[in-house]
């Protein structure tokens, strides 16, 4: 029973690791570069992002634990459901360095469009295994939809921005 708590906590915390590293690596780019970009009026406040991602990462991490547990751990049955999850998580973690560090909005857009597809695929795959786990991804998909639209708008509205750190 004690070991299951460790697995629950581990799976739940895992998405936060990449999220925190992404924030830490890119935190200086936000006031220097991001704040100067033209953004739509519906762009969430900077203060919303850490709160939203904390909730979203917690939900998706716990959902991944449910899937892992239902499939008997690292079994052959878990390869595709957890592989999809891992792939979308990797793309999720890759977006901030592409967007903020490299300032490459086109690559960030390609990343988030692929991420959208993998996240939807993950949810559909998980739905057959554990409906609660799949439903825990619904807020994440909603946020990704907004983030995708925001990435598109920022990319379109800031054509003068090129990859690289020229000021």
Structural summary, described in words:
Helix 1 (2-26) runs antiparallel to helix 3, helix 1 (2-26) packs parallel to helix 4 and helix 4 packs antiparallel against helix 5 (105-127). The chain has helices at 2-26, 29-32, 48-70, 79-101, 105-127, 131-136, 138-157. The protein has 167 residues and is an all-alpha fold. The protein starts with a helix and ends in a 10-residue tail after the last helix. It contains seven helices and no strands. 74% of the residues lie in helices and 0% in strands. It has one domain: TspO/MBR protein (Ferritin, Up-down Bundle). InterPro entries: TspO/MBR-related_sf (IPR038330), TspO_MBR (IPR004307). Pfam families: TspO_MBR. Belongs to the TspO/BZRP family.
Helix content: over 70%
**Main sheet, how many strands, which sense, barrel?**
none
DSSP strand content: under 5%
User: In CATH terms, what is the architecture?
Assistant: Up-down Bundle
Number of helices: 7
| Run of helices and strands | HHHHHHH
Any low-confidence stretches, pLDDT <50, length ≥5?
Answer: none
Q: Please state the structural category.
A: mainly alpha
Question: What's the average pLDDT?
Answer: 90
Number of strands: 0
Multimeric status of the protein: single chain
CATH topology: Ferritin
Fourth CATH level, the homologous superfamily: TspO/MBR protein
Which overall shape is indicated by the principal axes computed on the Cα atoms?
Answer: elongated
Name the CATH class.
Mainly Alpha
State the end-to-end CA separation.
55 Å
- Over all CA atoms, what is the radius of gyration? 17 Å
Q: Quickly count the domains.
A: 1
């Amino acid at each position: 029973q004690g070991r299951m708590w460790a697995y629950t906590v581990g799976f739940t915390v895992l998405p936060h690791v990449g999220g925190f590293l992404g924030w830490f690596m890119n935190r200086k780019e936000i006031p220097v570069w991001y704040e100067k970009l033209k953004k739509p009026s519906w762009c969430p406040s900077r203060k919303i992002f850490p709160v939203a991602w904390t909730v979203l990462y917690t939900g998706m991490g716990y959902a991944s634990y449910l899937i892992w547990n239902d499939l008997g751990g690292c079994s052959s049955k878990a390869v595709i459901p957890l592989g999809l999850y891992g792939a979308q998580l990797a793309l999720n973690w890759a977006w901030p360095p592409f967007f903020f560090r490299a300032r490459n909005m086109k690559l960030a857009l390609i990343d988030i469009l692929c991420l959208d597809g993998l996240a939807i695929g993950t949810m559909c795959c998980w739905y057959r295994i554990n409906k609660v786990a799949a439903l825990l991804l619904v807020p994440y998909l909603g946020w990704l939809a907004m983030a995708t639209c925001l990435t598109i708008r920022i990319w379109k509205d800031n054509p003068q921005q090129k990859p690289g750190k020229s000021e």
